[in-house]
Amino acid sequence: MTMIMRSIIDSLEALFSSFFSSIAPNLYEVLNFHCKKHTGMNFAEATLKNPKLTYEFLVKFFDSEMAVDVLDYLLSNFLKKYSIRAYGILKSFKSGDNKKLIEVAKLYSKVMQNGGGKDRD
Q1: Which domain of life is it from?
Q2: What are the extents of the domains in the chain?
Q3: CA–CA separation, 84 vs 105, rounded Å?
Q4: How far apart are the first and last CA of the chain?
Q5: What's the topology of domain 3-110?
Q6: Could you tell me the pTM of the whole model?
Q7: How far is CA 10 from CA 43, 68, 73, 94, in A?
Q8: Under a CB-based contact definition with an 8 Å cutoff, are residues 38 and 69 in contact?
Q9: Is 67 helix (H, G, I), strand (E, B) or coil?
């Protein structure tokens, strides 16, 4: 795994952990556990390496595409508090596209490096 990919995965881990924990404590850990069982990869890695399989996992885990649509909306709103405008990130996984996610990971990493994660509830 390249250093760049490792950096993106680390950024995604931080983003997803923060996002899913904002919905329910330990949700990301539970999601990650089941993702590893379903895909053989942790959630952040799966979103990079196989977004389509990740989407299928999310639909199965949350029991509907509508729930994934709601998560997508919540993720967009979550990112707004960091001044990141991104829509349809999870929906794009359905077609195997993760370009939006990679851009968001880079932006989120920059925000966190600049202390953007402080006092943002």
Answers
A1: Archaea
A2: 3-110
A3: 10
A4: 34
A5: 1.10.1200
A6: 0.88
A7: 11, 23, 23, 23
A8: no
A9: helix
Q: Please, which residues have CB within 8 angstroms of residue 32's CB and are 6 or more apart in sequence?
A: 42, 43
CB 100 within 8 A of CB 86: yes
Residue-wise pLDDT tens digits, 93-114: 999 999 999 999 999 999 988 8
Portion of the chain with pLDDT greater than 70, in percent? 95
Task: Copy the structure tokens of residue 81.
Answer: 């508090």
- Find the helix packing angle between 27-39 and 3-23, rounded to 10°: 130
Instruction: Give the residue carrying structure tokens 């960091």.
Output: 82
What does 18-72 look like in DSSP terms, one character per residue?
HHHHHHSTTHHHHHHHHHHHHHSS-HHHHHHH-HHHHHHHHHHHHTSHHHHHHHH
| Residue 93 tokens, joined | 């996984």
The predicted-structure confidence for 25-62, as pLDDT tens digits, reads as follows: 999 999 999 999 999 999 999 999 999 999 999 999 99
Phi–psi pair at 115, nearest 5 degrees: 80, 15
